Structure formats: structure tokens, C-alpha cells
Amino acid sequence: TMVDGSVLEQNEAKDASTTDPSGGMEANQETWMEQGDTQATKAAPAPAPQSDDEEKMEPNGRSMTEAWQATLAFLRNKWVLFLVLGLLGVGYALLGTLATAFDGLSWKAWFSLASVTVLVGCLAVGILPTHVLFAITLGVLVAFQCVSPPDSLVGFSNVGVATVAILFMVANGVTRTNALGIMFRYFMGNKRISLRLALFKIVTPLGLASGFLNNTPIFAMAIPVILRWCRTVQYAPSKLLMPINNALILGGTITLIGTSTNLIVSGLAESDQTLVDKEGNPLSFGIFGITKLGVIYFGIGVIYVVIFAPIDAMLPARQTYDSQIAEHAKEYMVSMRVSSKAKTVINQTVESAGLRHLRGLFLVEIQRGPSIIPAPAPDDRIEEGDVLVFSGQIDTVVDLYKRDAGLVPIQTEGEEPMLSPRFTHSLYEVVVSPNSLLLNGRRIRDVGFRQQFGAAVVAVASSSGSLIMNQKLGDIELHGGDTLLVEAGPRFYRRWGRNPNFALVYPLKDSSPPRDDWPHIIVSLTIAAAMVAIAAAEVTGIYTTAIVAALAMLLTGCQNIRESGAAIDIPVMLTIALAFGVGKSIETTGAGAAIANFIVWWLKPLGAIGVLFAIYVVVAILTSVITNNGAVAIMFPIVSGILKDGTVSNLDPYSAMYVLMLAGSASFSTPIGYQTNLMAHSAGAYQFSDWVRFGLGLQIVLMVVGVVGAFYLY
């Protein structure tokens, strides 16, 4: 115990100066590279003195010519960005000269507009992560006194922002119990049906669920299930993933809590006491205030995707990257026992259980007592107690591990099972060090992994690239460079990440199996439903009910504290909070009011509905190239200025705010506007043109529906 404690303290001290465990592979690789560079430096002879004719070198070792060539290459690759920024600069100059709305605008207002323009351009080309770009922009604005320090931090104290963070925890409690996974299996089945019927059966329940839960964890959990179903029924995933993603975004517009964009707009509007309705009362948004418009918006969107997605001219069938398996990819052999809790496979055939045509995974054999069924046929039936032996790549093995809590990995014989619940475990890739005296040349059963490291070996991939077959796991002899897939608790990386027996320890992200039992499934769904019902009845606000729901998820064991904290998407939260400060600079410098006056002057002949169309178009364009939350945070002061101006008759504040919410979620025509777009883009192997071809029509249809509906319903 004292030795373990010493090791733990040493490893914790080392971890204090390293990055997060999720970046463990990169950290170790950098360490190896640094060690390699050091050894190479020691071995190399001393360089000869540099002559005056030799080229000058920069501190990082690159020549001035190489640096100049890199600069020219950057300019060539980003010339479109610089051209657009230049044209916008000319446009700003013309506005300042010709438009009376911009007369007398201070240099701080122009600087704020220029900063936001550069921000949007950088976001569009992805120079840096979104939250980093917002932080840099806000820092520059504070430095030039375009926004005061208290105003720059207003997003970090906003109730809407805090509510988004808490709802991440609540949604994670539902997904960790696998409640949504069971719903997927119920609606989708394993038989081939018409593509339009399949789309309707999938997008309708998922879209409705997205109205009450964050759509990012829903889509993250849906993707592997959808990919498995597509492989089973032989549909291209590209025919489903983009339509499902669009339905999830549309479903978020049904309620106030369906998407963070709605909460951000409502938080901004309610915090601005000078914004009032037609009766002079401050704006207040109920959880179902947007529902009568959102349901129509969602319904029209679902009809569009169901009709047009099966048409190849609108949405081609793409070959996914998952189907293009590398010839020399590393493969594992893993055995899974079918326990009584295996809901998805017991008494099912191999085909109906979805175990045929798996991406990068092959069912080698079924072990049933003393008999073996090699290369199982599609109609072979799986029974309780069977051992399923698979050969596959790491990502598909992880999918299998998470798929059903009743599929239990077969571990080394003779070792006691791990005492902690399986849903608290994760998978780690561990590479055996060639210098390990404990592991190198010994059988797995002789090492005693459970006693030595508190982990269980699940699978082995040979360093030679050959597949290990016809050997029990415990009889496999380890050699330097072999990769082990081990199951362990959350402290494994901290304790053994720098152990000399391992050349590399890499935690596999999101590899924990769900807590797949009916009591917790029922409890998690009940908590989520009660949260929505209490907020809808206006007994208390959504912020309070969300806190209570998150605590209830913890107290009932639907998730633990570590999982709850990890569920919060820190980059997304930083982006939202920082965007508030950037938007504040547009408001306080007068730039927002000037743009609002210009829009009013330009579109006043068209009346209130013309202004609503302008709001939708501008925000939809912004949200297609930057984040949706950033788009509404930047546009809110402009919309607020239009409302406060009061010269546009019949423009209801609620109509304008709901149009702002809908347009902020309308990221259908590019893959970069929203995080689930990027998830779908990668998993479906889409091209950029696919998003434009399929999403632009949806964008136009929904713009008309949203603007006209908001004008007449509010």
C-alpha cells in the first residue's frame, strides 16, 4: 500500500505539469520526440562554425527563406479570406461616407466592427478553435477600451449560460442510463424498410427528444447505432445522418430549453430591462412560448428531409471512411460473454442482432460450451452463455464494448472479477515497453494484471501485425511493442500513465458502457420529465429546476460526479460566455444602433415583415460560418436597437426574438455552423457541396415559414 501510494503521488506530481489525460497520447509522443532529439543531439558531432555567407537561421532552426515561403503559402491558401475582408473594409468606408446612420460614429465603434469582421473571417476558415478566437477578440476589445472589464465578463454571470451548462449534466444522466439507446432499437429494428419510412420513424422521435434534451449527446449516441443499422440493412449512412442532424436541430426549436441558442436569446432579452412588449412589460419567455411556431417549423422541416433525402440528386450515397479500412490496420481479438442482461442479442440470429457486416469487425466464432461454431452463418441463433469471439479495429471494439451492458468481456482466467460496477470502467490502450522486466516475455496470466495494476486485459494486438488466434487470453506471451486493451477505473491513467513497464498509456474517450438497467432508466426519464413539467407550469424557473434535476441524477446514481462534470462542454461554454462580451462592445460603442438604424432606413418601406426577413437572413448567414451562439450574441444588440428605435410599426418584440432564435439554429447549408454538423460530416463522409445542395433549399423554405409564422402568430 505504501509503495502504491508513493507511485500515485509521483504520478500526480508528474501529471501536474502535463496536459489532460485525454491528450495522453500526444503528450507521450512529444516526450518521445524530445528524447529522440536529445539523443540525436548528443550523438551528432559538433557543427562547424557558421560562415558569413551561410544563410541566417531563426531560433526555431528554419531559414529566413523557409519562413518567407511558409508566409507566402499561407497567403496563397487564405487569399479568399483577405479578399473578402478587403471588400468589407471598402464597404465600411462607403457606409461611413454615404449612410447618414453612421454619421458621428466613434473610432471605438468602427474598431469593434472591424474586430468582429475579422473574427467572423477567422471562424469561417478555422484558423484557431472557436473559443480561442472569441477570447483573443474580446481581449483586444478590452485592451482598446471598446468594452469595459465588467461588461466583458457579463456572459459568465448570465443565467442562460449557466442553464446550458446544467442541462449538459441532465442530458448526460439520461444518456448514461441508455434510455435513448433502447428507444433507437425499438423504432429502428433490424429489417430493411423503405428509406422514407425509415427516416420518418427515426427523425420524429429524435427530433421531439431534442426539444427537451441537448441534441449533441443525443446525436453522439445515435451515430454508432445508426451506422450499425445502415450496415445491417445496406443503406448508405450519408442518406440518413444529415437528415437526422437537421431534425435534431429543428427539434431544438420546439421549446425554450431545446437548444442553447434559445436560452441565450431569452437570457439576453430578459436581462435588458429597456426591452418591453407592447404593454410596456419586460420581456419574459416561458418554456413553451415558442412551441406554436416551433412545431410548425419542425413539421415542415421533417417533411422536407423525408421527401428529398432519398433523392440521389439532392443527397448522394457516399462511401464512408469507415468502410475504407486500411490494409495494415491493427486488429484485436476480443471475446464477449452473452449474459442474461444482453437485451439486444439473446435468442436473436446473428443477422437480426446486427452482428453481420460490422464496420471493421468480424464475428470469428461462437463458443457454446465444449462446441465451437466457426464463421457463424446469418441465421445462427445466439443463446445466453455463448462466447462471441470478434476480430476488429479499436474503434469498433469500443462500440461493441459500449453497445450492450450484457455483453461482458472475457478476461484472464484465474483472476477475480473487478469489484467496482462495470459502468464506472473505461478502456485504455497500453503499449508494452521493450525494456519491461515485468511484462516482456511473460504470459498474461503470470503477470497478474489485476493485482499489479488494478486492471483487466480485454484484448491483445501483436506488435508484428499478425492476428493472435487459437490462444486463450491468459496464455498469450507478451513482447515489447504489443498493444493491450485493458479495462480499468478512472484512476488508472493517473497511477500508471508514466510507469516504465508501459511505453504508452492512452485513455479511450467515451468508452464507458452505459448503466443499462431498468430502474435507473425509469428514474432518469422521470427526472427529465419532471424538470420539463415543473418549468412549464412556471412553478419556478428552468435554471432552478435544472439544478434540482442534475442533483437528482447524482443522488439516484444515474451518473457520478466525475461523469457529471465531464459532461459540460467547456469550449462551448467559453464560446457562449465570451460571445456576450463581444456583443456588448457592439452595443455600448453604438455600432449596433448604427447598423440597426441603417437596416430600418433600408427596409422600412417593406414594414415589419421585411425587417424580420432581414434579421433571419443576416443571422442565418452568420450561423452558417460561425457558431450559432456567437451569431445571436453578435446580432442581439442590433435587433435590440431596431426594437428600441420604435419607427417600424407592428414589429412585435416577441416576433423579432423568436425569429432570432430560429435563424440562430438554421445552420443547414454548411458543415461548420454547428458541432453536430461536423459530427455528421465526418461520420457520413459528406462533401461540402452536399450541405449546400441539400441544405440551401431547406434554409429558404424554413425562412419563409419562420418569418411569416412569427409575424402572424405573435
* Structural class label: alpha+beta
Helix content class: 40-55%
- Uncertain runs are 1-61, 321-329
Main beta sheet strand tally, sense and closure? 9 strands, antiparallel
Number-wise, the strands total 9
Morphology:
globular
- The termini sit apart by 68 Å
> Rounded to an integer, what's the Rg over CA atoms?
28 Å
What's the average pLDDT? 76
Give the helix tally: 28
Question: Proportion of β residues?
Answer: 5-15%
Provide a descriptive summary of the structure in words.
The protein starts with a helix and ends with a helix. Strands 1, 2, 3, 4, 5, 6, 7, 8 and 9 form a nine-stranded antiparallel beta sheet that branches. Helix content is 54%, strand content 8%. The radius of gyration is 28 Å and the shape is globular. The longest helix has 26 residues, at 688-713. Mean pLDDT is 76; it is low at 1-61 and 321-329. With 714 residues, it is α+β, with helices and mostly antiparallel strands. The protein is built from 28 helices and nine strands.
How do you describe this structure in short?
With 714 residues, this protein is an alpha+beta fold. It is built from 28 helices and 9 strands. Strands 1, 2, 3, 4, 5, 6, 7, 8 and 9 form a 9-stranded antiparallel β-sheet that branches.
Spell out the blueprint of helices and strands.
Layout: H1 2-15, H2 24-43, H3 64-77, H4 79-98, H5 107-125, H6 130-143, H7 149-152, H8 159-176, H9 179-188, H10 195-210, H11 215-233, H12 241-251, H13 260-271, H14 291-308, E1 332-338, E2 361-368, E3 371-374, E4 387-392, H15 394-403, E5 407-409, E6 426-432, H16 444-447, H17 449-453, E7 455-461, E8 483-488, H18 492-496, E9 502-507, H19 518-536, H20 542-555, H21 561-566, H22 570-588, H23 591-603, H24 607-625, H25 628-645, H26 653-664, H27 675-684, H28 688-713
Antiparallel strand pairs: 1-4, 1-5, 1-7, 2-3, 2-4, 6-8, 6-9, 7-8
Helix pairs in contact: 4-5, 5-6, 5-22, 6-22, 8-13, 8-19, 8-20, 9-11, 10-12, 10-14, 11-12, 11-27, 12-14, 12-27, 13-25, 13-26, 14-28, 19-20, 22-25, 23-25, 24-25, 24-26, 24-28, 25-26, 26-28
